[in-house]
Amino acid sequence: MPRRSILTAFECENLLALPDTKEELIQLYTFNDTDLARIRQHRGAANRLGFAVQLCYMRYPGIVLAANTAPDTTLLRIVTDQLKLSGDIWNDYSQRPETRREHLLELQSIYGFQSFTTFHHYRDAVYGLSNLAWQTDKGIVLARELVDQLRNRNILLPAINVIDRICAEAITRANRHINTILTDSLTRCHRQQLDELLKLKDGSKMTWLAWLRQSPAKPNSRHMLEHIQRLKVWQGLNLPIGIERQVHQNRLLKIAREGAKMTPADLAKFEPKRRYATLVALAIESIATVTDEIIDLHDRIIGKLFNVAKNKHQQQFQVNGKAINDKVRLYGRIGQALIEAKKNGGDPFAAIEMLMPWHTFTASVTEAQILARPADFDFLHHIGEGYNTLRRYSPQFLDVLKLQAAPAAKGLLNAIDVLRDMNNNSVRKMPSDAPTAFIKRRWTKLVLTDIGIDRRYYELCVLSELKNALRSGDIWVQGSRQFKNFNEYLVPVDRFVALKQAKELSLNVDTDCDQYLSERLQLLGEQLATVNCMAMANALPDAIITNTSGLKIKPLDTAVPNAAQTLIDQTALILPRLKITDLLMEVDEWTGFTRHFTHLKSSDIVKDKTLLMTTILADAINLGLTKMAESCPGTTYAKLSWLQAWHIRDETYSEALAELVNAQFRQPFAQNWGEGTTSSSDGQNFRTGSKARSTGHINPKYGSNPGRIFYTHISDQYAPFSTKVISVGVRDSTYVLDGLLNHESDLRIEEHYTDTAGFTDHVFGLMHLLGFRFAPRIRDLSDTKLFIIKGNAAYDALKPMISSDRLNIKAIRAHWDEILRLVTSIKQGTVTASLMLRKLSSYPRQNGLAVALRELGRIERTLFILNWLKSVELRRSVQAGLNKGEARNALARAVFFNRQGEIRDRSFEQQCYCASGLNLVTAAIVLWNTVYLERAVNALRSHGQNIDDTLLQYLSPLGWEHINLTGDYLWHSNKIGVGKFRPLKQLPKP
């Protein structure tokens, strides 16, 4: 059986390809004087040309141009231009084979090139890839590293099959080494326990492994106890301490993913070392996953209890609303009577009795006291009614989590230890010396009573504060992925110090604190002075600031010119009509995006592209695999499910999306909408099914129905280059930076727009430090304050907008290195910006880093607002960018139409597939529309119509009226021919 190749044909072709830009070609293949002198030593124009071309190929890509192989035409033209020769003489080169061999030997001798040999170089090449193979098993990544190593050593590249074999051997050696590390420290007991995971669970038709990998269905005490039991089983394996740190996390995750896709029967067939290594990786990942899911369940259960208490509190208040209003009106009349009595010198008691008898007045006072709420009006006393729900699982919840705390949360951790001891010893009464310093003021009256500490409210307070402390990072959990020690997310301190000293932080700002602050504060002072002068002179464009009404900005005119609307209508009429299946096939022929959906284990490309696109389309249109199998003749649910399991992942979706975004970026017509340097992001709410109501994902902003947010980034060229599924309860701003930093496309975004939900001061600070210009459209801008430093400078015209607080420059200086370490960690991908923003915003105390970053953000936010006040162009740019995002959301809503646009998949993984599939298909529609809009405009021009180029910006590639999204999903072979296009509809008569 032949060895399986780890490189695809496409990767092989691109690995040895010449650069595709003229600038790179010129840079690589321009000869110096010495080169030209050596070339001219050869007799005959054809020999000089052949010698020069061979030199170019040996330098880059590092190969010998085979006999009877024509050189690249662009490269040949560059060489002939330098030598002042004609390219036509290439066929005259090397009429004698000896001449070619002599030239190759001469080039190797003069320039030090070495031929690759199995004896001298093969084994070194395999060992040279060891470190990289330890981190990844992607063949193309290893192949590129190998090629770079050989080029740096001036070794000519071997045949592509040799490169493939070297990479495959490096991966095989790394796999064996990883399996050895994961299994050598296992005892006989460990192996027996791991084998038990593949057996059927008592009284069940599923194996222990299948049961352990189930996700919780609802946030209630029953499912919490069941999930805690899963974690206990995983912890009961007692794997060797630190085994997860001995293998690179990328490889560990890959092994776990492969194992998760396999049936227990498949795992049982593995040879022992590989089987145990796979199960260990699965156990490590599952412990982290289950731990995080348990904490998330607790978070949602607490959240539901608080919401129920708050609603009950409000309902009770509303029930008494009429009585309270009557009492307020009564005492208003009494107050007015007393005022009149004092003014006229009358008897106040008589004044009251003129309105009502005295006994009625005294009775009304008693009623008012009953209706009145305490001064610290709160709903917490209703939380006690949900105590039994928490009590069902809290003892096991506190017992199963391995908690550690920062100094600020030691009191809370001590309180948890007290509760653990009470649970273990079945003690009911709280000890008098139980920790209480962590108790917030609003809880004090409920917890600390006249007869001692109230056990019920004490435990409720501890569980509530634990939820907050886990979010902020004051308390962390051993074995968790989302709730680790804050410092473990960041670049190690020693590495950060070394990078800073070597000036290799690769940040877009001056890393010297004094220099940075000097520049930003100087700019802030200049901008404040400029805008203040403009405001005093009433010279702010379409804006005015007054002491009485504050800031007023004239709304932008968004009308589309008549000529542009006419062009929009004309192009829409002549675009060809087609089915969504035909559109996807046509776009795949242009871009080959389907090649990125490789097999998880073998990295093979999908053989049946139509089956793959059927699976993608099932995600995109929200039909689901079962219904899609019914709507697509010739396929089955089993085929679609298998393909989704092995070929569809977050990374394959990301790579395919990048292919489409890059294709859009290269379209000349897309330049009419932008240069690909600005973008916007927005969240789109999709309802989840009624069964998901109990998951707790509800936000009053979107009504009482549960839902999920698909948060999408779109470029100025309409390409949606990133999407992420987020909870409706999380602010959009948390995820703004993730899309900008972690997309796979060639876009280089410089400026980004969001709506009000997309900004916080922390985001403003991080955006600037990471090199992005941030421009949110802030609702109620007049209520948003400007921040200035302490000093004597007066900005009278801006006074209504200036905050009474001053910038805390001291905090920035004190925590400057921490800020740089955080930003470096985000830039290098050690941690995501969203995770850090969630933790920083959740700190219940005034954390120094959070305060310092907030102050940096206030500087940047103030600079932005000042720029907004004086620049109508900025306002128009932001408005235009956000409008593109909203229009894209309309397209997404139209595509995601099945099941009434409601997400029925309950697993988070499936919801992510829906979001990614939807984004990929909308990107394909955008690309197809762009190509055909250009053809439509050219057709109108050739038809005699004079079209002003300035009107093209008003066209949009987001239309779908000409695309049939419904019906049976049939895949037809290409009937229009490769490289050809569909005919446009008949042009209107001029």
From TrEMBL:
Residues 674-697 have a biased composition (Polar residues). It comes from the Bacteria. Residues 582-969 form the Tn3 transposase DDE domain. Residues 672-698 are annotated as: Disordered. Keywords: DNA recombination, DNA-binding, Plasmid, Transposition. Residues 6-170 form the DUF4158 domain. InterPro entries: DUF4158 (IPR025296), Tn3-like_transpos (IPR047653), Tn3_Tnp_DDE_dom (IPR002513). Pfam families: DDE_Tnp_Tn3, DUF4158. Belongs to the transposase 7 family. This is Tn3 family transposase. It comes from Vitreoscilla stercoraria.
